[in-house]
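**Protein fold record**
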Amino acid sequence: MSSTLDALSTGAQVGAVLPLLTAVVQRPAWSATYKKVVAVVAALIAGVAAVAADGGWGQFQHGQLTMATVVGVLAASQTSYDLLWKPSKLAPWVESLTSKKTSQQAE
C-alpha cells in the first residue's frame, strides 16, 4: 500500500511543477486543443521519467506503480494548471516570455 502512495506522491510532486516547464515550449498563438495535447504528452513523458528516476528502468516491471505515477503526474499537472498556474497568470506569462517575437510583434 505504501508503495502505491509513494508512486502517487512522486507523480503529484512532478505534476505540480510540470505546467511551468510545459509553458516554456508552448506558444500563446497555439490553439487550446494543441496546447492540451502538448501538456498531456509532456505529462506522460514526465511520468515515465519520474518512474525511471525513482526506481530505475527495472521499476517498469511493476505495472500498477508505473501507472499510478504516470496518472499522478497527469492529474496533478492538469489540476495545478487549472487551479494555480493559470489563475495566477504565471504559466501564460512564461509562455509569452519564452515565445519568439516576430518583427510585427516587436514594433
Remarks:
- Residues 103-107 have pLDDT under 50 and may be disordered.
- The chain has one domain: 2-98.
- Residues 21 and 91 are 9 Å apart (CA to CA).
- The chain is about 80% helix and 0% strand.
